[in-house]
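Researcher: Good morning. I'm working through a list of sequences from a screen, and I'd like to move beyond sequence-only analysis. For each chain I'm collecting a predicted structure so we can compare shapes side by side. This is the next one on the list. No need for commentary yet; just the structure.
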Amino acid sequence: MLFDLPDPDTLYEALLARDPFYDGRAYVCVSSTGIFCRLTCPARKPKRENCSFYATVGECIQAGYRACKRCHPLAPAAEAEPAIRVLLAALSERKGHRWSEPDIVRMGLDPSTVRRAFNRHFGMTFLEIARLERLRNGHVALAGGGKVIEAQIDAGFSSPGAFRAAFARLMGQPPKSFAADAAVKADYIDTPLGAMIALSDRTHLHLLEFADRKALPAELRRMHQVFKGRIGIGRLGPMDQLEAELEAYFSGRDARFSVPLAFHGSDFTKAVWRALVDIPAGETRSYSALARQVGRPSAVRAVARANGANQIALLVPCHRVLGADGSLTGYGGGLWRKQKLIEIERSHARAIRPGAPSHAALDGQRAP
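Model: Good morning. Structure tokens for this chain:
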């Protein structure tokens, strides 16, 4: 099930109103200019007779239209906002810098506008994202065998207490709680949609989440309980395989994954996650369809909770579940990421044989 477009007159009214509901779900092609835009484009509105509407960027390009340079329909919605684009570029250039509101003002930006924009797209402020980036530097130092004081300095924190508290908020536990000789380890993996934190042992992946997801610290605390505190910082074999498969996924070469997965949850929750894995890339399902698939048609809310509790993002594709009306609904990694993932997978769909699962090595290789 993909989002079904309403009639063209409804979409034209949405274009005039710059309705954000359709952002990433519908695009307008303007015959008088030869360009296609988001329905939220700030440009002057075209005449109704010059407009045609499509559900995907690919359809617009195939119809012979080029992307608008004002609303950037080829970019995720978050990147189309100038303040976000400028600040994320600055964050990448000034690694380790301790960002503050005066820095934002000196760049000619309004802190309150920036705060609203980042909260709308990322669920956190720019300053919180910048703090996470600094913590990552500390994580890298610890993974390389450095001491906590060295990690604190690399992360740009002025006091050990502040670093330990910030590290614990992100990773669920303070640095000293991570065992050096642990059989299960946590490490960062970069993706075009942001850094992710992976947790694996020598054979299976146990967790994969975007580093800025607010539920991540609670998820890592649960993993500490599962493994009785024996979690370390560093990289094990499945993470290298995962990184290679994620690179193939985002580059458009292959949407299938074969990293063995370990599920932690009730039997019902695991059944929902297995059903998610069975959704082919390029397709979506409603919560009610997923409930029928697991043999519990009346348990739609329970299915939604299990979907939200998924701890292995992308590989267990909870982003492929939409509302009954085709709306994106909630996604822990942010709706802008969900939109982008669905767009990426539509481009994969033609290259995958019909009905092929997205995780080729799931059955028979999953830890209990």
